[in-house]
Amino acid sequence: MTLKVYTSFFLLVLVNSVWSRTVRQVYDDLGPDHWSHFTSECPRECFCPPSFPNALYCDNKGLKEIPPIPARIWYLYLQNNLIETVSEKPFVNATHLRWINLNKNKITNSGIENGALSKLKRLLYLFLEDNELEEVPAPLPVGLEQLRLARNKISRIPEGVFSNLENLTMLDLHQNSLLDSALQSDTFQGLSNLMQLNIAKNSLKKMPLSLPANTLQLFLDNNSIEVIPENYFTAIPKVTFLRLNYNKLSDAGIPSSGFNASSILDLQLSHNQLTKIPPINAHLEHLHLDHNRIRSVNGTQICPVSIAVAEDYGFHGNIPRLRYLRLDGNEIQPPIPLDIMICFRLLQAVVI
């Protein structure tokens, strides 16, 4: 599983890199006459780098509106301005846009003209972090792969807003104003290829239900979650990285099979209210339990296989794979119990 996850991300980076180099090479072969044409097309408020003419840099210019975007532009940088509205007009000729960065502006939902975003058929990456949005904007481009909406004022997710976004792999909603009521059973319907979901720093008290089955990374830090429902992770059987730091989880809120999912490799439960280490799966590799209320560690109790099996060097099939264990900020006194080392023979670091 680990190899597959890393390979997917590596291929994504590689494809983007090759794509960018190919585009640059095409324009590097153009003559002076072409350069003068590109320069004349460049909005006077912006910068058009000669070495990368399919990018337009309009960031940090004090702009209050989006200038007309030339047809050749693929990458548009508009962050750190005073933009309040997103209308269709500036994008009339920009039919090749792949990337728009509108972070750190003053955009509201009422300031986004209906259809202004959805008509950008080739858009893959949309960044609207640090704006004034109160709900997820709609409609969105159907080919979108990444949607970043962190640090807005979003408290509402319109019904069906994600229903056609089957290519979306990353959705970032962290540091907004989402309550449990905002996440309905069909909220994420349609996100069949979602890999990363970030809902950290909201106001959730419950684990969100009906998450996309292909979710690999789930970030729920800094909420007020108290309970992990029984068999919760059977609905997201591929989840690999799980972050629940800074919540209100107690021993009573975690069922005996709470984190017994073979897909989870990295589990973060720091800054909660646990007094003991919850049951884990033998496949887990990284466990963060710092700053809880744990007083002691019993290797026999937390070992996902019996100590007798763990002592058998020849039994490699179910040998626990834990490599990193963080326990600092609790009430545990060294030394580390010997049965911990007997169980977790692959441990490389223990922080107390």
Question: Could you explain how this protein is built, in words?
Answer:
With 352 residues, this protein is mostly loops. It contains five helices and 13 strands. The chain has a 13-stranded parallel sheet with strand order 1-2-3-4-5-6-7-8-9-10-11-12-13, with no helix packed on it. The model is unreliable at 1-37 (pLDDT under 50). InterPro entries: Leu-rich_rpt, Leu-rich_rpt_typical-subtyp, LRR_dom_sf, LRRNT, SLRP. This is Keratocan. Residues 41-75 form the LRRNT domain. Keywords: Disulfide bond, Extracellular matrix, Glycoprotein, Leucine-rich repeat, Proteoglycan, Repeat, Secreted, Signal.
- Low-confidence parts: 1-37
Count of beta strands = 13
Helicity, as a percent range: 10-25%
Describe the biggest sheet? 13 strands, parallel
- End-to-end CA span: 29 Å
Proportion of beta-strand residues: 5-15%
Order of helices and strands: HHEEEEEEEEEEEHHEHE
Structural class: little secondary structure
State the assembly state of the protein chains: single chain
Q: Strand sequence of the main sheet, in spatial order?
A: 1-2-3-4-5-6-7-8-9-10-11-12-13
Family: Belongs to the small leucine-rich proteoglycan (SLRP) family. SLRP class II subfamily.
Keywords: Disulfide bond, Extracellular matrix, Glycoprotein, Leucine-rich repeat, Proteoglycan, Repeat, Secreted, Signal
Domain LRRNT: 41-75
Subcellular location: Secreted, Extracellular space, Extracellular matrix
